[in-house]
Design goal:
Layout lengths: L2 H6 L1 H4 L3 H4 L8 H12 L2 H9 L5 H16 L5 H32 L2 H25 L3 H28 L5 H5 L1 H16 L11 H6 L2 H10 L7 H7 L3 H12 L4 H14 L8 H5 L5 H16 L2 H14 L7 H26 L1 H24 L6 H19 L1 H11 L6 H30 L3 H19 L8 H20 L11
Helix pairs in contact: 4-9, 4-13, 5-9, 5-11, 7-8, 7-9, 7-24, 8-9, 8-13, 9-24, 11-20, 14-15, 14-16, 15-16, 18-23, 18-24, 18-25, 19-22, 20-21, 20-22, 21-22, 21-23, 21-25, 22-23
């Protein structure tokens, strides 16, 4: 690179003194409201539809049995009933996979905000179908409705973090991005609360319960139009300078939008001649190889780290601890509240401690909990104290997950890529996440049957390996612009690329 070119890209390679002192104490009010508006119809729906299906299990079984008998004048077999129920529950993951497969492309075509607004059509359709299933006597509508809710969740969990990461100032990108995990946990908790018998958990209310997914959709359609499109999308993808300035002023305030506009313009200038990449193009791009490996590993680990196993064992541990069966739903709400609390805590700590400390520490604490939980379950009947120790391990594991892996994973997916690669990266990360979700839901029962409490030794290995990888490979991204983060990976990716073909496209190439 010539001296002139080095001088030209000096702001991209090194932070100046003013940049290092760049801090924002608290998000602008408009920014906070925009985050809430995006999340209520985005990842809130993901968490809500995961948890809300648990409460009406018995009632839906009875409905399917009754419908089958009326149609065919004979009872449905137990095996086929189980198959139908499993399909209703698990087809959500197939819908999610479809959703992330189209979410990235939609976010480029319609914009981040436009895609989020359009996505509510799926939520409203699903709510209508599931609400009509009982009065029409068509349990098939439940299957179709759950598939469509999965599509809605898949698009939301792909596009919403894109929007949050791109509307936030650099100094607040972490706490803003935490909106994704915070609203997932709020959604899970809300679904658990709505499923209590005091609200909509009674037999006569289950169709209404499943239809309440329309409420967040209506809220987002009412609120989100008052907030702007992603400034980065407006300037880099659409070339709308005036729209970008207006959006930044609304989201960041008049006093602090200049530096963010400068960062976006630097990124746009560096990406001149590049178009939004397709997912398969990222696999052949040596300049993002390490970032791609990282997000695939983190999204796989997010499903395979044992959090699902902890929830599976929760009912058993609650019973062993002497909690009556009719009180267990309230204890389960306690686990949801615990995860919600840690997501909020992570949001408060992420800009002070950084991403790397939280996610590495979270996985290490989960590893310790895996060991302790295996021991307490093994000796569950040895002393009356052990059930309570197991209970403590459950809450400690959930706390550890929410404090790091649950919150930071999506933020890193946003931060490790620049504008042209980010939508495709989210499609890949989301696909890996949903496939891992499907895999663990299918394989997990067999792991439990085969290994019993020792299944947590498998999850222990996953947690330790991921923590080690993050500690050794993943850099801290706090207070760095997207280009500065890319430059951290630049030398490593160049070495990896040179081992294949002696070169590769780098972010700071001058022949654009």
């Amino acid at each position: 690179m010539t001296k002139e070119n080095v001088d030209e890209y000096q702001p991209l390679l090194f932070k100046d003194e003013k940049d290092t002192k760049r801090t924002v104490k608290f998000p602008n009010k408009s920014l906070l409201l925009a985050v809430c508006a995006a999340c209520i119809g985005g990842t809130f729906q993901y968490g809500y539809n995961i948890s809300i299906i648990n409460a009406p299990t018995t009632y839906v079984h009875d409905f399917i049995n009754q419908t089958w008998t009326e149609r065919y004048q004979k009872d449905i077999s137990e095996d086929f009933l189980t198959l139908l129920w499993s399909t209703i529950v698990s087809i959500f993951t197939l819908g999610g996979l479809i959703g992330v497969s189209i979410g990235g492309a939609l976010s480029v075509r319609l914009g981040r905000k436009g895609t989020l607004l359009t996505n509510n059509i799926f939520a409203l359709m699903a709510a209508l179908l599931m609400g009509l299933s009982y009065p029409t006597g068509l349990f098939e509508l439940l299957i179709i409705g759950r598939l469509i809710t999965g599509i809605n969740a898949g698009i939301g969990i792909c596009v919403q973090p894109l929007y949050l990461g791109e509307i936030a100032p650099t100094a607040l990108r972490g706490i803003t991005g935490m909106g994704t995990s915070v609203f997932i946990t709020i959604g899970i908790l809300s679904g658990q609360v709505m499923g209590l018998k005091e609200l909509l958990g009674r037999e006569e209310h289950w169709p209404i319960l499943l239809s309440t997914t329309c409420v967040p959709a209506f809220l987002q359609l009412l609120i989100l139009p008052f907030f702007p499109e992603s400034p980065r999308y407006l300037l880099i993808d659409k070339g709308d300078e005036e729209g970008c300035k207006k959006a930044l002023k609304q989201l960041h305030g008049m006093a602090s939008f200049d530096s963010e506009q400068e960062d976006i313009e630097k990124e746009r200038n560096n990406l001149v001649g590049f178009k939004a990449k397709k997912p398969w193009e990222l696999f052949t791009d040596h300049s993002v190889r390490l970032q791609l490996i990282t997000i695939m590993l983190l999204n796989t680990a997010q499903q395979l780290n044992g959090i699902n196993a902890i929830y599976f064992y929760a009912d058993y541990v609650f019973r062993q601890a002497g909690i009556p069966d009719d009180k267990i739903p309230y204890a389960t709400v306690g686990t949801g509240a615990c995860e919600c609390l840690t997501a909020l805590t992570c949001g408060l700590l992420i800009e002070s401690l950084g991403r790397k400390v939280l996610i590495t520490g979270g996985y290490m604490l989960m590893s310790i909990c895996c060991i302790l939980f295996t021991l307490t379950i093994t000796f569950q009947n040895a002393s009356p104290v052990f059930p309570y120790l197991s209970l403590a391990c459950i809450f400690a594991f959930i706390l550890s997950f929410g404090l790091g892996p649950g919150g930071v994973t999506n933020i890193l997916t946003t931060e490790l890529f620049t504008q042209t690669s980010r939508p495709a990266a989210y499609m890949i990360a989301g696909s890996v996440n949903w496939l891992s979700f499907f895999f663990i839901s299918m394989v997990f029962p067999f792991i439990v049957i085969g290994l019993k409490q020792y299944c947590f030794l498998v999850f222990l290995a996953v947690c330790v390996l991921v923590a080690t990888y993050i500690f050794l490979i993943v850099p801290e991204t706090k207070n760095k612009t997207f280009l500065e983060i890319q430059n951290v990976f630049r030398s490593t990716n160049k070495r990896m690329a040179s081992s294949d073909d002696g070169g590769g496209t780098t972010l700071l190439a001058t022949s654009l």
